[in-house]
Specification:
Elements (H helix, E strand, L loop, with lengths): L7 E2 L2 E2 H11 L8 H9 L9 E2 L5 E5 L8 E8 L2 E9 L10 H9 L3 E2 L4 E2 L4 H7 L7 E11 L5 E18 H9 L6 H4 L2 H24 L7 E8 L2 E9 L2 H23 L4 E5 L6 H10 L10 H14 L4 H12 L3 E5 L26 H11 L9 H34 L6 E10 L2 E6 L5 E6 L9 E10 L4 E6 L1
Parallel strand pairs: 3-10, 4-10, 17-19
Antiparallel strand pairs: 1-2, 5-6, 6-9, 7-8, 9-10, 11-12, 13-14, 15-16, 15-18, 16-17, 18-19
């Protein structure tokens, strides 16, 4: 987090703007007094009657600056495949339902990452300390235990509570290049042959899972995130942050863990919150996009056919593949949370080709995950929520997720505008990401920033590629204006 007094740049205070964005989008960025009072009473000591799994070589991999660690991982090779354990922070053990902290979290539903400041769903002393699975000591966790078979299927899965201890807090930026063979191992990894073997086994299992999902039709996107380069409290540049082998490892494990959790709740016959992505309504436009590259997709949404097209495009033109990937991602539309009762027809997750899917792996940062944790822990007893309550929570989580995206989008534009001011007049390659009544929007590929096309916008649609010139950058309004060359 950057101090607000350091973030005034070109007469504009980015931190103040982020806080105002939060308020305008329906968030409450300040914790009420009763939250602070409850926080003083919380002292987390894991229940020693739980299964003791502290001797395992657990590790975490996350962003360089992450302190709210929700999960740690461990794996072992067995006769039936690779057994993978994902331990999730037991936030419910510290935050009771209906308490002031829980009520505030239920309103916010998500931590919002606004670029220059994070607005946590839970007080930071909780999310980055008391319930974070950092190296700071023993922690209560909900363990998702699964066996990854040789064909990538999950041969068995169970969920239980345990006491765990993170023995190696690692980062994507350090572990990724090492796994890819392009960098040296980070110090903690270099110092432990056991940890090296552990991470390589996890990487093997993750690839097996990913390959299996690909065969089922799960979509593989090449996501590029914007990252501000801040020096002395000022935005000096805007760069791209891409996935690497370590971040994909964690993504693969989280997807599998969420599937196991969803199936566990379904098999128990209880109502739950599902994470769904419906078949794309703009499938005809996706078909047109494929035809532009000489490909033909079926008339009805088919994730397998779409994934095959994306795979071929990545092999044929890896440099421009992010253009296609981004266009398809935009045309698919966002996911949503829905309440699911016993016997309901599951809608599934189109992008992951998953029939059963929920969110359960980030309870420090997402309220839906905390609710799912409570549902799991209540199996065999009285449910903690009625169906009407779950439906209301699901709707609010979807609304706030959309609001969070808008905060992040608007702040990203302001941050990018600050970073792009010295580059007005330069030309860039771009792809059309939106065509709305308000105008045509394009994303520049390097740096990965989005803005409005103010000149030459007629006749364009999502996915079209073009060259643009940066006409203006306005941090105050968050405007980045381009003109078609």
């Amino acid at each position: 987090m950057l101090p607000s007094e350091f973030m005034a740049q070109n007469g504009f205070n980015l931190v103040a703007a982020a806080r105002q964005e939060m308020i305008e989008r329906g968030f409450s960025p300040d914790f009420p007094p009763e939250v602070e009072q409850q926080l003083k009473t919380i002292h987390t000591q894991p229940d020693r009657s739980l299964r003791d799994m502290t001797s395992l070589l657990w590790s975490s991999i996350d962003n360089d600056d992450s302190r709210d660690l929700d999960q740690i991982e461990w794996a072992e090779r067995t006769a039936g495949g690779v057994r993978v354990l994902v331990a999730i922070a037991d936030v419910d053990s510290a935050v009771g339902k209906g308490t002031p902290i829980d009520t505030h979290a239920a309103h916010e539903t998500t931590t919002v990452y606004a670029g220059v400041r994070n607005f946590p769903m839970l007080p930071e002393r909780l999310s980055t300390d008391l319930t974070s699975l950092s190296e700071s000591g023993d922690r209560a966790a909900v363990v998702i235990d699964m066996l990854v078979a040789a064909d990538g299927s999950i041969a068995s899965g169970s969920v239980y509570r345990a006491v765990t201890r993170n023995r190696a807090q690692l980062t994507y930026s350090a572990v990724g290049p090492w796994l890819e063979g392009t960098g040296a191992p980070p110090a903690k990894v270099a110092a432990s042959a056991d940890l090296q073997a552990q991470l390589k086994l996890q990487d093997e299992a993750a690839h097996t899972l990913r390959d299996a999902r690909g065969r089922l039709g799960a979509l593989s996107f090449d996501r590029v995130e914007t990252q501000a380069v801040v020096s002395d409290g000022h935005v000096g540049d805007v760069t791209a942050r891409r996935q690497n082998r370590a971040s994909k490892l964690i993504e693969d494990f989280m997807i599998a863990a969420n599937e196991v959790m969803a199936r566990t709740l379904r098999d128990a016959g209880v109502s739950s919150i599902r994470r769904v992505v419906k078949a794309p309504e703009r499938w005809p436009r996706i078909m047109e996009l494929a035809e532009h590259y000489g490909e033909k997709l079926p008339p009805d949404p088919d994730s397998g056919a779409l994934n095959a097209f994306l795979t071929r495009r990545k092999q044929a033109d890896p440099v421009h593949y992010p253009d296609v990937s981004l266009s398809v991602l935009k045309l698919m539309g966002p996911g949503e949370y829905v309440m699911s009762r016993k016997g309901d027809t599951e809608q599934g997750h189109f992008g992951l080709a998953a029939h059963d899917y929920t969110h359960s792996t980030a309870p420090n940062r997402r309220f839906a995950d905390l609710v799912t944790q409570r549902l799991l822990k209540s199996l065999g007893g009285a449910p903690p929520y009625t169906d009407d309550e779950l439906d209301a929570i699901a709707r609010n989580c979807t609304l706030k997720e959309d609001a969070a995206r808008k905060v992040q989008r608007d702040m990203n534009k302001r941050i990018c505008a600050v970073g792009l001011l010295p580059r007005v007049g330069q030309s860039f390659s771009a792809v059309v990401t939106g065509v709305t009544p308000k105008g045509v929007f394009v994303r520049v590929l390097d740096p990965p920033v989005e803005g409005r096309l103010m000149r030459g916008e007629h006749g364009l649609d999502v996915g079209d590629r073009l060259h643009v010139t940066l006409l203006a950058a306005d941090p105050q309004r968050g405007f980045i204006d381009f003109g078609r060359n």
